[in-house]
């Protein structure tokens, strides 16, 4: 039996619930009214508890999960950052600094973290999951970095984890913001295991009786091997991977679009047209900065990727399209963002490079 240890969260309505069972620390995202949108208090609670468990010899690993029926985490609490910026406050800088620090800490955590994620795993949720040593998703999971749709760029370490996907898949997903289904998540390497949602409860019961007679990472992996799978049939991205590699290898959004427009294979024309439609709905500035970010991220360490994302985010609320994207999609909900500049034709490389200036 694991001994009882103090935890940060004691109340059932706290946004993060923490408890220990059979030498595993459980951190449960518990903000169901907001699809577990990550807030600054949640970030601090998660980080503080992970720090405490890191030094506790009775804790062999950590399970990160969700209480929400629909989502593991559907992103950051971007509406609160919008309101803070409008009020002239500095919450967004503190939020992003502490969020990136938490994500980077998860990547380097000394004990295995098992992310048990279902439903929507978007943006900030991806930042939590991608750093875990063991990434388990449900059969109803939907993973995405959808930031370009609200005038932002893929952050939370995406410049590292997207650029390590096969071929140009990371470029494609970062630019379009498309949701990835379980078969595609396993194919791309965004997840390690798929466990049917109905088996989550049984998985927890087996964790409660797990015998820790070998290293914790091996105990957890062996249990998953008996219940979950590492491959699924029907990956759409696998079928499209050659076309994605062809069209998204270019170093400008304009060239990518021209390549897609030239697609003359009948079986790929609908996909190419839909991809062009998606790109045309995104912020031109966010698209071009995202492409530059992903190209640079290929040669940067994880720590430098986070530093570069911090460098960009520090400018973005004043100079980028995020405030307008949030206004149009989440505040006024007119779904008619006035991007600046409004078209790709008006974008220049000088405009993009200005955001990266000064980064060393």
Explain how this protein is built.
- The protein is α/β, with parallel strands linked by helices and 360 residues long.
- The chain has a domain of 162 residues: 2-enoyl-CoA Hydratase, Chain A, domain 1.
- 48% of the residues lie in helices and 11% in strands.
- Strands 1-2-3-5-7-9 form a six-stranded mixed sheet, sandwiched between helices. A three-stranded parallel sheet has the order 4-6-8, covered by helices on one side.
- Strand 1 and strand 2 form a beta hairpin.
- The longest helix is centred in the C-terminal third of the chain and has 18 residues.
- The chain is globular and about 60 Å long.
- The N terminus is likely disordered.
